[in-house]
Amino acid sequence: MNRLLCYLRSRRGNATVLWVLSLPLFTILFLFVGSLIVVELTSSVSQTAADAGSLAATKKMDEWILAGLGGEIDKRLRDAEDLGEEGIMEAFPEDSRLRENLLEGKPLDDIPMEDIIKGLFRQ
């Protein structure tokens, strides 16, 4: 051990010894940094895949809900048409475009869905 310390303190070959001893440390450091980069890239790809799956599931759920909601809306609106003018006046808010369209006698198919949905709920 004493001999190693004397060798390290000597001026001849000191830089070479330190360079050779530091190579494994630098190698380990660069491998660690490289692993972190790979983990980050993998995480990014995984997050993108999860987002895509979430959007696909949400879109499918929206289709199911709108299909059921559309049928319910059509049923209620057809019932409202059968109520006559007084029933429409009571059933829908005064500022509703849906109410105006129904009172004018427009067919439901000609009324935009946005007006129908807004007209069904009091604000």
Strand count, sense and barrel status of the largest sheet are:
none
Helix-strand makeup class: mainly alpha
- Specify the helix fraction band: over 70%
Give the helices and strands as they follow along the chain: HHHH
Strand content: under 5%
Q: How many helices does DSSP assign? A: 4
Rg over C-alpha atoms, rounded to the nearest angstrom: 37 Å
Query: Which regions have little confidence, pLDDT < 50, spanning 5+ residues?
Result: none
Summed over residues and divided by their number, the pLDDT gives a mean of: 78
Oligomer: single chain
Number of strands: 0
Q: Separation of termini?
A: 86 Å
Write down the overall geometry. rod-shaped
User: How many domain regions?
Assistant: 1
Description:
The protein has four helices and no strands. The protein has one domain. It has helices spanning about 1-10, 15-90, 95-105, 115-120. About 85% of the residues lie in helices and about 0% in strands. The mean pLDDT is about 80. It has about 120 residues and is mainly α.
